Amino acid sequence: MKLCNNFACTLFMGCPLLLSLLNIASFYVRKNTVHYDDSPRRSSMYESDGGLIECTISGETELVTIPEFYKNKKCWHRFKDTVTFFHAGKGGGGTVHIALNKNRIGVRMNHPYPKENSVEDLQNGPATTLIINVRDPVDRFVSAFRWRSIVLCKPDDERQAVKKGSAQKPHEKCKKTHPKEEQMLRETYRSDPSVLAEALCEDSPLREDAIRHYSTILHSMPLSEWLEFLVEPEMIDSTSDEGIENFIALPLEKQGDGGEALFEQHIQMLMLHLLATRYTQDKASAAHQTANDIIMQKHQNQRGTSENGAKWKHSSVAFHNA
Question: Which residues have a Cβ under 8 Å from the Cβ of 299 and sit 6 or more positions away?
Fold first, then answer.
């Protein structure tokens, strides 16, 4: 992609904020720093009374062992009152969402935009922890452009036109609800993110229209808007002592030098951290390990056919823009 020098900063309106987020897994907001324990271990507390954890179903709470907790599909680690997840589009948030659900960790989800009541709860309580996924801004821009070009129905589209479900089966279905966005991507920018990128440059005569067009692409909201209440002075001043204490950023990173998937490591550490805020470290480690054992077993069973195996991949992986 040919980019003007100011492209990323102009497009995402807040380079210092972005750069501060890309290389960290967590950082201090006002009161507490989040520290991960990155060495999850199997606990010896499965059978002891001290290994019991709470399972609440329909308002009734009982103490169960960790294996019993995961055998009952209605048992969840519920953090929705205190933990909010801002799922910024095309930055790995779907993978985070799936992992949390598989591990029965319930948080308040915000996607594709931050919800006003969630922001208010982060400012004044009871929400005290915010999680957000972050990604290189140019990669995210390209991914959002290409994904919408793929998933939206074209005039001659032979796929089934639907309102919902196209993201899960884009080869079979297309989204019919945004014809103007699809026309803009296809006709104005020739289905090429580079054309839009060049139009966004400061010296481009098309810049004003390009900025307006870019803002209409779903999943394109910049981090500075997602986190407006943390960067705008007036909104910062209106945040009370009962509000946000911890801010956790999950950077979508590529594989490390040893071939390990760094993003997956961040997600695993996040889940272990959340469990450790509620239980002892031993209980958190045991719960985390038990959930992983169950997930891996289910994963192996699901891979019996290529069709089932494909369900374990994010829908956009096949298009190399996850």
Answer: 312
pLDDT at position 130 over 90? yes
Compute the distance between CA of residue 285 and CA of residue 39 in angstroms, rounded to an integer: 9
Smallest Cα–Cα separation from 221: which of 2, 4, 13? 13
Q: What is the 3-state secondary structure (H, E, C) of the chain?
A: CCCCCCHHHHHHCCHHHHHHHHCCCCEECCCCCCCCCCCCCCCCCCCCHHHCEEEEECCEEEEECHHHHHHCCCCCEECCCCEEEECCCCCCHHHHHHHHHHCCEECEEECCCCCHHHHHHHHHCCCCEEEEEECCHHHHHHHHHHHHHHHECCCCCCCEEECCCCCCCCCCEEECCCHHHHHHHHHHCCCCHHHHHHHCCCCCCCHHHHHHHHHCCCCCCCHHHHCHHHHCHHHHHCCCCCCCCEEEEEECCCECCCCCEHHHHHHHHHHHHHHHHHCCHHHHHHHHHHHHHHHHHHHHHHCCCHHHHHCCCCCCHHHCCC
Task: Write down the mean pLDDT value for the chain.
Answer: 82
18-53 per-position pLDDT tens digit: 444 433 333 333 344 444 444 444 333 333 345 799
Query: Is a pLDDT exceeding 80 seen at residue 116?
Result: yes
pLDDT in tens, 83-105: 999 999 999 999 999 999 999 99
Share of the chain above pLDDT 70, in %: 77
